[in-house]
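Pasting as-is:
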Amino acid sequence: MKLLIIEDEKEISNSICSYFAKDDFLCDTAYDYDAAVERINLYEYVCIILDLTLPNGSGLDLLKEIKSLNKSEGVIIISARNSIDDKIKGLETGADDYLSKPFHLPELGARVASIIRRRSFDGKNKIIIDQLVLDIFKKTLKLQDKDIPLTRKEYELLLYFISNKNKVVTKEAIVEHLWGSYIDTADNYDFIYAHIKNLRKKLVSAGCPDYIKVVYGMGYKFTCN
């Protein structure tokens, strides 16, 4: 899963990226307004962490830009401006949360996780599809209490499919979500075929229906009730 960190203080930005990398997030960074605008127009993210004070522009203006584009990302404002008026203005402009500096990284992590659950999984910690149970906190997958072991990329791939269930997702979208900027240099997508094939095989071997369908010429669809 990909995050965008919009923060002009590189030390803070690097600390945030290092923290989330431990949980296998991919982090893009932008250190000023113009770079941030370019990122949000080019890529999709599960959450954007946004500082209000940026070179070349305002974080609030950037938030308005995000909302005008009808982007689906959640937004958490991080700012040294911690007055009630600033918080209200940020939330009214469209932010999902507001965290005053200085803050503890585990708190930021918990707030990001909460936004992802709320936006992608209806606020649930466990996703249940038929008799399949995906535990987001423990990062485990079970069928009738029997573990289905997945690699890290297989888990992330399944989570992405489920968050887009019954929707067609392109190969390009999958690569961008799971491998970040690698999509810009990839000559082909052979590596994604292998991950999808292995994931499908593990699910079917465990007794699941073949949820992942190929939509020829378009991509893939995770089909379930």
